Protein: FAD-binding oxidoreductase
Amino acid sequence: MFNVAPPSRRTFLVGAGRFAAASALTSVLPFPAAAEAGNRRIAASALKDLAGAVQGGVVLPDDPFFGDYARPNNLRFRTLPTAIARCASEKDVQACVAWVRKHGARFAVRSGGHNYAGFSTTPGLLIDMTPLSTITALPGGDGLVKVGGGALNGMVYQALERLNRTVTHGRCTTVGAAGFLLGGGIGFNMRMFGMGSDLLQSTSIVTADGALHSDIQESGAGSDLFWACCGGAGGNFGINTSFTLRTFPVETVTFFDVAWTADVDEVLYTLLTRLAEAPPEFGSKISVTKPARGSGSQQLTVSILGQLHKCGTTVEAIIGPVLEKASKKTITPDMPYWPAQDLLSEFTYPYFYQEKSSYMKAADITPSSVAAMIGMARLMPGTCMANAFKFFQVGGKVNATPAGATAYVHRGYDWLFSSEVNWWDRKDPKSLVDENLAWQERFYAAVNTATKAVGAFQNFPDPSLKDWSSAYYGGNYARLRQVKTDYDRTDLFTYRQGIKPL
Structure:
């Protein structure tokens, strides 16, 4: 067993005695209720009851660490909760579900807090899963690992490194593993192993009736719910308390990081079309970056970052002659797997951003469509931060799974495209931010039209997306609605882009 969760920094509201002192300033706390119940105020006695039922503790706004626990990664959505329940067990999760049902209270569930659209924030009860983060290698020698529903990606990586194994994983260590897996989960290994959700063998989940469904899997009782958890996105069907994943032994990889500042149109077109034929052992992300406004240069840079597992070819042969035009080139063969991931990883501090995504096929990308992208990118107003549009390479094993086999429907594409706008509110005036967001909408629409790109990645939720149900779930949405109806007919687990019951 690997218990890599950080120790709790203090003891919170546990039981009636400590609650009385912590809530001495008020006997009635404001607590917006669920929409169907209207606005209500929840008495302090109700939170006292919750504190007595949640062994992990309940944190109130006067606690010195409240802000740390409440802060999301996307600072656009800084809604403060009324209270934070720190769930340290499945019984704690069940107690929270029973409590919100009893009081009609608004709530959200969070582990890492990286939801792009702020769906893991709430003015009500924030159910914090991070204490439930034990990671266990299961016996039997078949490489199965059970991950707690509150584990962060970085904790999973530490445990897997000790086992000399890996999965399809992301780059950001502070992302919650639950959200990552439930929405699909992309990473440099996905072309070789499949999406993160494709590696799910079972999951445990507390549903709206408070029942714990333990280790549901592809066959047997709860198979429909398991199907929905493989890409149906978090916050729709219940609170997942654990995930059992199939893992793979690690080997050495070739790490590469290459950039171009000249002939960027030609380079980008070449990469987007040529790399679609790369073997599944090749995983990459292409970025086109515009420097921060006022940085002295607005020159666009095309870069590619990734890794190549052992196979019958090399990075140089895959990328081809365009390498000769690179302004920066790092290609390191035979690196131990997990040290290579240190070079591929990123740590994101909380800031302000908006991301839009879609899926495209290499066959639909033309020199003129790439030239149009580059031309529009040069016209982006810019902010005090660097901005980029990116292409995450899919295909390979991702496309080997039929679109209806799991809730993750986006099969048959070569690239997951995304456009990001980043800013800092203390330096970028609202008028400039609005100008950049308007540019992003035009850019996104133009790129989609020019490349026939469709859909959107549910792990990059976009609050401005109009037809989100079709974009995220395509032909799987009807079945997802049926599962939602079967397990949450009253729509207890609800948010603005949440799957709706029939």
In short: Residues 430-451 form the longest helix (22 residues).
